[in-house]
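Replying to the earlier thread about multi-chain prediction with a worked example.

Input:
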Amino acid sequence: MKKTILLLLFCSIMIPISAQKTFEQKADSIIALMTLDEKTGQLNMVTGNWEATGPVLRGSDDKVKLLKEGKIGSMLNIRGTKHTRDMQAQALSSRLGIPLLFGLDVIHGYRTVFPIPLAISSSFDPEAIILASRVAARESVVSGIHWTFSPMIDVSRDPRWGRVMEGPGEDTYWASIMAKAMVEGYQQPFDDGLELMACAKHFAAYGAAIGGRDYNTVDISMQTLHNVYLPPFKAAADSGIASFMCAFNEINGVPASGNKYLYDILYNTWGYKGLVVSDWGSIGEMVVHGYSKDRETAAQQAIEAGVTIDMESNCYSRYLKQLVEEGKVSEQTLDNEVRKVLVQKYKLGLFDDPYRYCNPEKEANEILTPANREAARDVARKSIILLKNEGLLPVEMPKKIAVIGPYAGAKRDMDGNWTVATDKDVAVTLLEALKTRYPGSEISFAKGFDSKENNDRSGFEEAITIAGKADIVLLTLGEHWGMSGEARSRGDIHLPGVQEELACKIYETNKNTITLVMGGRPMIFNQVSEKAPAILYTWWLGTEAGNAMLDVICGEYNPSARVPMSFPKHLGQIPVYYNRKNSGRPSVDAEGNYSNRYIDIDYKPRYPFAYGLSYTSFEYKDITVSKDNDRILIKLNLTNTGDYDGKELVQVYVRKLWGESTRPIKELKACENIFLKKGENKEIEMSIPCSGLRYYGQNGWEDGKGDYKIFVGRNAEEMIFDTEIPVY
Ligand code: NOJ
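Result:
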């Protein structure tokens, strides 16, 4: 039978170009040869487990047998040319010899680790995002990987949710730009024909889990679903992304893995042509949700909704054949999903050469290269946010440097969570970077506190002593790598343990203290915010973390990143996000009665969305706003008035003043990162297409026509300019 496929392929090569078969037609020629078992096999994705010695298959004899029978169509968690080749060989020995797809969570780099996605989002720099995705894509495809389960484009307004680290933050417009940039970086084919499939996840509204508890219920209005959570997914679909992944959550009573409403939007409204993979076990979990009667029904509901591949719940492999035989699921429905898988395999060139991603020479030469590390360093420094600076930064490194805090020397904490392929000893720590760059300095180090033993003060004395003797102190605070990520929601997002207590003592001891906060989410640290002379929020920066931090500290790079999610001042403020509605009684600064606020805490965030400082300053002049056919045009003159070259994120927000449905007090609709040399001046033109003002209201999509206020701001709270303009 394998000969039959080869014959079919050969014939398709011999047909003149105009009559050449499409991938869909080629897929159909194969589908015509397939048994029901083989078809359901293509929709079955299983994991290989990774252990110190390499990948192992759980219940491995069984899985090898299934591979040989053509009952597995794709695998995750197998990586490396050798191991993927071994597994591929098993699949090729099946009756039809259909090659496997290998997927992996390459979330922020493969072996060269880039900053976590939330950090890269802070760069507000599409080129940096493309670069990071490009390098990750190349390292993946030369390691046998065809498919990354990224980008994660779940907007989230709740920093307690552990998975904010994987996403774009709170803003829908920016998340959509980021989605597009990541798809471009991941999916563009390389010169040698290798290419990576990307995956938009988690469809949809996973970031709206009640209380920020991972996997929790989502109960939101249609307006919020359409205006806040869906647009980044539409951007990914419009960019030609190859796959989507279901979310674990239910939305308003229906789990995402069987949610026909969502897939109707995806396939029919947006015209998406790729495949959909479930999340791990999420089809089976529809029973636990209390939605599907049993796992067989779950399989039926998922495939009828349009979920192509079952990742690890075995509902498809166990029940689909029977469902078709009993006439409960039509064979055409099954074939439609099988076709999507085969088409992707064609696109990747796997039918031409199933081992084309398994070249050990490329793998040996193209991973963790100096160029890749340089890219990681570049993106890392663009991801560091300057939150505070009382004239201390940048510094010329003096002789005596005290480095305090366990994270300064902890390699694993440089990478952060969701690293699947990195060697744990590769990342450059701050301490290492300092020692390499300043061999002549006296560098002392004290842990000060323990990242795990949260209330241990036994290290305070040593830390205070070295701080007292130093010219400058670099104090590293934050979360350890396991504190943000999947299933890592935290109810209390203050800096853990006794860190703030130590920090205050260090500030009293040495005024020249630079604080670096590392972690996967916005945290609360009011005392540090108030007392520290200088704060850099570094997130988890990856392989080149230490070098990138030093680049910023020394002024080799002038910080340009901005806050991608509002940082709360108090736990009770959460969710705190800039694009809230006004209400009939908006929050006011004074502790007035009867306004939309708590009586005991401020309503404003500590650091608002898009906040971030620079070593230089910028002046905005001559701002004008006009309407030009189907666009709003914003013109302004920007001058770098300070002493350093630098970047300014010019932001334009809109507010629709009244209409069929209420709208947020501000919505970001355009932003651009402008680089100016010191003293340089530039005319800037930005535009907002009127189509971008559309809004999903109480009766569906509204065209957005109406009276608007347009703002230009330094961040979501600090406006420089506003004007009113009719848009009809
Ligand atoms: C579960 C996570 O939710 C998802 O993001 C990931 O891609 C899969 N596991 C596979 O590891």
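The first strand starts at residue 44 and ends at 47.

Feel free to reuse this layout for your own posts.
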